[in-house]
Amino acid sequence: MFNKGNKSEILNNEKVDTLIGPNTNIEGTLRAEGTLRINGNVTGELIITGNVIIGDSSTINGNIKAENVYISGTVNGNISAAGQLQMTSTAKVIGDVDVKNIIIDEGAVFNGHCKAIANDNSLNKEKTKEKISVA
Prior knowledge:
The protein is built from 1 helix and 15 strands. Residues 1-10 and 121-127 have low confidence and may be disordered. The chain has a 15-stranded mixed β-sheet that branches. β14 and β15 (126-134) form a beta hairpin. It is globular. It is mainly β. The protein has one helix at residues 9-13, and strands at 2-3, 18-20, 25-27, 30-38, 41-43, 46-54, 59-61, 64-66, 68-71, 74-76, 79-87, 92-94, 97-105, 109-117, 126-134. The protein has one domain (2-134). Helix content is 4%, strand content 60%.
């Protein structure tokens, strides 16, 4: 669950379909398909059919729903990822997460509840971990 080291290869090699640049501020609900990389700031909800990559200078104030979420910046809101949530060493997440798999690199900050969805359908589908704070 906790990684020590550099950013994952997927953060650098992922094909990006939509890019929000560093000098861009967006307000409102953003819906997209494919991989979305945010290097700017968003105030509002992200609903992505695909992956979201949040750059280290980015701030998201709102909820995120996506397949996989990779965070290097700041998220103030809840995250729902059907696959994986990865927080790099520069990430800061204030909010609850509902994920299948979570990776938190050393140095990341997470303050919220984590609900991990089990892979085995014969068991109770959800395992819940109570309040987690990592600093």
